[in-house]
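Lab notebook, design round three. We kept the backbone fixed and only want residue identities now. Task for the bench partner: fill in a sequence for the structure below.
Input structure tokens:
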């Protein structure tokens, strides 16, 4: 955990120097991307900088949805896509490359919320707009916009669902859980944790072990759960708070390896990943949190196209503000949904987030039938 953050900060020092050197010629290179096309509003280059691929949503949902919406709105716009593979220094290098290549707008989902502040400052020196996407960028910066879900609410939904599955207000007292949080470099992870604790701390549930999971790694989550089982005893764990579906998968793998039945030890998740939803249907994972990515990615693209064309944010799109420790950032905030096997059909399937044939493979055919999905 600390090693990862230290490595990111060491990488930042070198990259920040590179930023300073590149800034001297940045205006000329940025102008090269602002050519006009057949679109009456003009066109240009938009950089989409995503943080990692261990969370499957980024490659399978965010990227294609964002690119499709940009193409729909601006045929002459070009999306410069990069994925940082959970490396903050690499992401800073990718941002510099996008700036040098003429990007007029950066849509940035940061690996490290604080070190990404240097990217924002560097971009704004060249009059490049920055949209803080899904995760709020800090580091003393003032991104132009922020777009995400109510992330403290995500943690509240997860914790509330777990408490209910452990017996509710009257039945949860004295029961013991393990908390497997997200990456400490992710600003959202802290909000998920805060939201979850706001429920757990007044419920009477006992938190036997709590971990922050570097890189959101399912493998590391599995190791953490192994440690918790060894320390607490497999018969002394009643539930698992896992911050997303990837970490839930790791925790469930550890339980199975220890001879525990995950259908009797409820766990939480987030992102409605395919494997996560299938586990929910099968009863191996108690719930997931559904954050519809299509509106988030689509609105980010809509905003980015407006900015690259020199326009204001479309009327009615911005619906709030979010303070990042430096300023109140104009924000577009959505509300998440808790999903259990009882409402998979009415949420994830109804929205077409996953198709029936994707969810209901032979291994999950009976679970789908039981949930009314066919």
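Proposed sequence:
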């Amino acid at each position: 955990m600390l090693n990862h953050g230290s490595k990111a900060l060491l990488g930042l020092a070198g990259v920040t120097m590179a930023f300073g050197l590149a800034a001297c010629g940045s205006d000329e290179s940025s102008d090269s991307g602002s050519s006009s096309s057949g679109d009456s509003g003009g066109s240009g280059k938009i950089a989409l900088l995503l943080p990692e691929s261990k969370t499957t949503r980024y490659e399978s949902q965010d990227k294609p949805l964002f690119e499709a919406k940009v193409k729909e709105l601006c045929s002459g716009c070009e999306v410069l896509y990069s994925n940082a593979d959970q490396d903050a220094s690499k992401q800073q290098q990718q941002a510099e490359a996008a700036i040098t290549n003429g990007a007029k707008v950066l849509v940035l989902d940061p690996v490290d919320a604080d070190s990404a502040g240097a990217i924002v400052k560097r971009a704004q020196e060249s009059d490049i707009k920055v949209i803080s996407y899904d995760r709020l960028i800090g580091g003393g910066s003032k991104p132009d916009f922020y777009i995400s879900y109510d992330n403290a609410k995500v943690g509240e939904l997860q914790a509330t669902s777990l408490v209910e599955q452990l017996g509710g207000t009257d039945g949860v007292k004295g029961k013991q859980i393990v908390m497997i949080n997200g990456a400490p470099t992710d600003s959202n992870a802290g909000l998920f944790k805060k939201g979850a604790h706001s429920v757990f701390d007044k419920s009477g549930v006992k938190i036997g072990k709590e971990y922050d999971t570097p890189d959101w790694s399912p493998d590391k989550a599995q190791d953490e759960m192994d440690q918790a089982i060894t320390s607490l005893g497999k018969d002394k764990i009643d539930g698992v708070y896992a911050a997303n579906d990837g970490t839930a998968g790791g925790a469930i793998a550890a339980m199975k390896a220890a001879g525990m039945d995950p259908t009797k030890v409820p766990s939480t998740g987030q992102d409605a990943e395919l494997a996560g939803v299938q586990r929910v249907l099968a009863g191996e994972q108690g719930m997931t949190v559904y954050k519809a990515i299509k509106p988030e990615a689509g609105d980010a693209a809509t905003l980015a196209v407006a900015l690259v064309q020199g326009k204001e944010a479309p009327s009615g799109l911005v619906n709030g503000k979010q303070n990042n420790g430096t300023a109140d950032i104009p924000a577009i905030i959505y509300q998440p949904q808790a999903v259990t096997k009882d409402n998979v059909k009415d949420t994830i399937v109804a929205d077409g987030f996953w198709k029936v044939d994707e969810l209901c493979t032979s291994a999950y055919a009976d679970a789908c039938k039981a949930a009314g999905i066919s």
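Keep this in mind before ordering anything: The domain at 151-290+337-370 is CATH 3.40.50.2300 (Rossmann fold).
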